[in-house]
């Protein structure tokens, strides 16, 4: 349990950044964009 907590605390900075709604939308948008691009390349 202690190790888990330490690990979480270590990447808490990143989690805080990822928790921002704007960043989440941007990340999801980028993933979708890249996904569709890859799909088009595969289908073509």
* Silhouette: elongated
Measured between the Cα atoms of the first and last residue, the distance is 50 Å
Gyration radius from CA atoms, angstroms: 16 Å
Q: Give the overall pLDDT as a whole number.
A: 78
Low-confidence runs (pLDDT<50, min 5 residues)?
A: none
Strand content: under 5%
Describe this structure as you would to a colleague:
It is a single chain. The protein has 44 residues and is mostly helical. The protein has a domain at 20-44. Helix content is 91%, strand content 0%. It is built from three helices and no strands. The protein starts with a helix and ends with a helix. The model has no long low-confidence stretch (mean pLDDT 78).
Task: Output the keywords.
single chain, 44 residues, mainly alpha, 3 helices
Short summary:
The chain is an all-alpha fold and about 45 residues long.
Topology (elements, then pairings):
Blueprint: H1 2-10, H2 12-19, H3 21-43
């Amino acid at each position: 349990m202690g190790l888990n907590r330490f690990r979480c605390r270590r990447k808490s900075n990143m989690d805080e950044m990822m928790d921002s709604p704007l960043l989440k939308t941007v990340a999801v948008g980028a993933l979708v964009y890249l996904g569709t691009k890859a799909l088009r390349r595969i289908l073509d």
